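Please go through the sequence line and token line underneath and see whether the fold suits the sequence. See right below:
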Amino acid sequence: MSTPDKLTSRFTVDPTALRSEVQAKYGEVAINPGGAFHFHTGRPLAERLGYPSDVTAVLPDEAVASFAGVDNPFAAAPIPAGSRVVDLGSGGGFDCFVASQIVGSDGRVIGVDMTPAMLDRARRVATELGVANVEFRAGILEDLPVEDGWADVVISNGVLNLVADKERAFAEAHRALRPGGVLQFADIAVGREVPYEAKCDIELWTDCIAGGQSVDEWCELIAGAGFTNVSVGLPTDTFGDAPGEDHARTYEVFAHTFRARKP
């Protein structure tokens, strides 16, 4: 096991400090979803990202308000009814509630998040909706509270860029999937290299810039974790007309969906 000093030295930011800043920023999104953020949020964002209106219309505002994803991971490929799904960084639960409709009563959805305010919101909404096939667990993506081989599909939406140890997060996703299971996530990709100094700026990490990878780097991380058949979706202009648009343009940031299979 790595000592804390050795672990920290692998990254441009301290992973513990980064988690604390992420919790603070996205805790505010959970508590005050109508606040001023560098990214789009809520129902307008879901519409911008192409979520079907018949899926979102049945969800109350409380279930959608704190949504802060970057693309639509469900657009990468259909998820079969009856599937068991894990959402990495489930936030206020929007994608989990979408998944619960897709998998139906024979399926199950586990959302994993580390931000208490997001978990509180997600669990409150789940209770209000009366969904029996969704569960929210506290945890980090580098140490998933999910048993080996449980999931048919692992999804995520704009969260893996916020993780310092991406290799570990992808290894955990691989562990949680059954053989033949699918990794299907959305995240931001940078078209221009982020300078080292910027990668050391935690604020640029929480702004979904400094932790982004190029499309090729994302594919290398996915393959390095043991996944095969990697495919990449078309770019999505996530930050267009958002307060964070200038930073996004500087580093040519667009979102993509990624899909791969565990052999």
Remarks:
- The domain at 4-261 is CATH 3.40.50.150 (Rossmann fold).
- The first helix runs from residue 4 to 9.
- The CA atoms of residues 109 and 134 lie 5 Å apart.
- Confidence is low (pLDDT under 50) at residues 1-9.
